[in-house]
Amino acid sequence: xxxxxxxxxxxxxxxxxxxxxxxxxxxxxxxxxxxxxxxxxxxxxxxxxxxxxxxxxxxxxxxxxxxxxxxxxxxxxxxxxxxxxxxxxxxxxxxxxxxxxxxxxxxxxxxxxxxxxxxxxxxxxxxxxxxxxxxxxxxxxxxxxxxxxxxxxxxxxxxxxxxxxxxxxxxxxxxxxxxxxxxxxxxxxxxxxxxxxxxxxxxxxxxxxxxxxxxxxxxxxxxxxxxxxxxxxxxxxxxxxxxxxxxxxxxxxxxxxxxxxxxxxxxxxxxxxxxxxxxxxxxxxxxxxxxxxxxxxxxxxxxxxxxxxxxxxxxxxxxxxxxxxxxxxxxxxxxxxxxxxxxxxxxxxxxxxxxxxxxxxxxxxxxxxxxxxxxxxxxxxxxxxxxxxxxxxxxxxxxxxxxxxxxxxxxxxxxxxxxxxxxxxxxxxxxxxxxxxxxxxxxxxxxxxxxxxxxxxxxxxxxxxxxxxxxxxxxxxxxxxxxxxxxxxx
Amino acid sequence: xxxxxxxxxxxxxxxxxxxxxxxxxxxxxxxxxxxxxxxxxxxxxxxxxxxxxxxxxxxxxxxxxxxxxxxxxxxxxxxxxxxxxxxxxxxxxxxxxxxxxxxxxxxxxxxxxxxxxxxxxxxxxxxxxxxxxxxxxxxxxxxxxxxxxxxxxxxxxxxxxxxxxxxxxxxxx
Lengths: 490, 173
Description:
heterodimer, A: alpha+beta, 4-stranded mixed sheet, disordered C terminus, B: alpha/beta, 4 helices, 5 strands, 19% strand
């Protein structure tokens, strides 16, 4: 089966519009639209290059190298790969439960990652759209425009991001390519001087995070109907939750809910994930389409990430963030929590949770402890799962008797969200593009929907000259009749 | 914050495990070995990351000169050496910022002009995950390192000459 607007019934004679946002050296991601002579939309597809080759890259490596090596898969969320691989390798070395110090140092590192990633995403990527409007002057719709109009917002974004990076540096040992988390535990705890340095600013980070939640709420209030309707679709959701149902971004059991909030499965031990999740393939995309096995590919696709987590947990175990979660879920009878733009609100609630979580851990003496490592009975298979900033991340390895990785399987957040992202942009196309002359502002609506998810595009390669945004209008004979490019230097 | 920062910052981007994307970090490794004295004396600082991001604007504070180093698929081999001015990125992803956008961010958050910046773009060809540096890229890297070391020495010489001239002037006065 194909979904509505996935495949045009009669593609011959339709105009093809490609929004080619990233042309990377190893592939590219793009949106293609098929339009007829009256600008009616017949087909919308988001194509994103998957992490192909990563599993091969890891094969043959000794298992203890993997938590460091996998950081080179992604330059944006290396800590998520670092920790997911470490959790998988804990099982290989038989560390069924790491020490309290190791657990808390890893959680601290993860909160640092969540804080810096969410701050960057909101303040520097999405706030220009939200503050100025989706079809506002493109010259103004960027972080510099935000800085000119709202200087405090831009500065806070940078400083929140910097603080998160400092948490990572102190827990992982280095600014990039950290080595802090290892199979069975961690190789360093926090020095008292590091703890004091982080404590000095953490309350400011909490205050700014609260302000950010309020800012998103105000944006919803100002334009409620539009915000709730934009790219809206119904979907199942998937996330990890703690044993008591609390949000837990580092560890937990799998919970899936349907679009009405009914629980489909709960507290599933993630090392059996393949009993619950399967992946579909489409001929037009390299990236797979995961779905809940019990519902099948047509009904079982789901979304992951901040919106799924904030709406999917029973509570957030830090008080300020939980109060904001309750407000978000109750807002306008619950409608905001089902909106695609609700991702931004949920993301800021998680940022607040991360800031509070950092504060709590900094006051916990275990983070300066000396019991760092655990060992146990060696195993041949390890599975690590974590809630990365963009959603659920799965690392699955098999290691042979010579300690070499012989098989690896990674399912990343962007893959989980594949169908959800396609649904969001198809809905936007129906709502705003169908039957209208395309403009930069209208095409930006598509990008706004994509930005809600912030998909990851094998981002560790970024050579200069390969990041144009190109829009091509091609006529029925395949001739380029118009084009627009920005952002590259080729 | 720390006190005095090195007047010259070299900030290189790249992923060491993606073929010629490693040109940036490899440049840092070469220069670190060649200019150990300058680094030790606090005249030069070398930083590297996967890619440029907003917070890197803070690394520019207090510098006299910044050089961004990155692999390029667009420049003429072996390398290009260009001035860069603050400019805005229009992007759809958090995944990267251009040097010009980092300068623009600096100006936005610091309310001052950023220090003079140049980009040393080194021509790369192959960017496969797990691949080593290609042979042409290795040649381009060597040429870029030679150029940079020479440029830094000339800059230091120029500063020394300028300093001497200022001292002479003050003596005259």
